[in-house]
Amino acid sequence: VQTDLARYFLHRRTRSSPGPAKPSPESLRGLLQAMEVPRDRALYVGDQLLDADCARAAGVRFYAVLRPRRSRRD
């Protein structure tokens, strides 16, 4: 799903970003370091179990966004 949210974030990582991918916590730790945000002040919002695994491995709180399932026709 493409959104317009990227314009609100100075630091971000996507699937195409170089470096370790989820669920490796390294990219999340790197983002927190770049933003000077301690882990206990961070919140990871995601919609996949892989997101939860990444947050847990990095020691960051996680908030799940539940989306309705879509058919292949959508």
From TrEMBL:
Query: Which protein are we looking at?
Result: Phosphatase
One Pfam family for this entry, by name? Answer: HAD_2
List the Gene3D superfamilies hit by this protein, alphabetically. HAD superfamily/HAD-like
What InterPro entries does this protein map onto? Answer: HAD-like_sf, HAD-SF_hydro_IA, HAD_2, HAD_sf
